[in-house]
């Protein structure tokens, strides 16, 4: 059970990076269509193990219900994604996905461990 949760989280985290290709191909939008997401996933060679999560991230509720056959509902999938990555906010948006994958800048200079005293043992 632990490993399946781990695999799912890893796979879903990779789906976040499709947002750049979706924006590049179709422009920035609040929701994308099933065919747009499917085509982008094919081009990016996304593995199809947890694709219902991929569609729940980028499609709207109506588009998901009409296009995707899944054991779980749209809301169940969004809640699961939100608990893993967005502190339970199931109404996360494309902007939230972009913010999640944005790299954190480094504002410091060179770290000199010898000067910081990290690891020094005093007797």
The proportion of strand residues reads under 5%
* Shape field: globular
Query: What is the helix content?
Result: 55-70%
Query: Given the helix and strand composition, which structural class is it?
Result: mainly alpha
Distance between the termini: 47 Å
- Largest sheet report: none
Per DSSP, the total helix count is 8
Rg value? 19 Å
The helix/strand order is HHHHHHHH
- Regions with little confidence, pLDDT below 50 for 5+ residues: none
Mean pLDDT: 84
- Regarding quaternary structure, how should these chains be classified? single chain
Description:
The protein is mainly α and 123 residues long. It is 59% helix and 0% strand. It contains eight helices and no strands. The protein has helices at residues 2-15, 18-26, 34-43, 51-58, 61-67, 74-85, 94-101, 113-116. Helix 4 (51-58) packs across helix 6 (74-85).
């Amino acid at each position: 059970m632990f490993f399946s949760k781990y695999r799912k989280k890893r796979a879903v985290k990779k789906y976040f990076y499709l947002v750049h290709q979706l924006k590049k191909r179709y422009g920035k939008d609040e929701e994308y269509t099933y065919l747009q997401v499917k085509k982008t996933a094919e081009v990016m060679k996304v593995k199809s193990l947890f694709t219902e999560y991929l569609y729940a991230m980028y499609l709207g509720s109506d588009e998901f219900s009409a296009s995707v056959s899944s054991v779980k509902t749209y809301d169940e999938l969004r809640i699961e994604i939100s608990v893993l990555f967005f502190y339970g906010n199931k109404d996360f948006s494309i902007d939230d996905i972009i913010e999640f994958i944005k790299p954190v800048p480094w504002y410091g200079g060179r770290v000199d461990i010898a000067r910081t005293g990290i690891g020094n043992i005093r007797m």
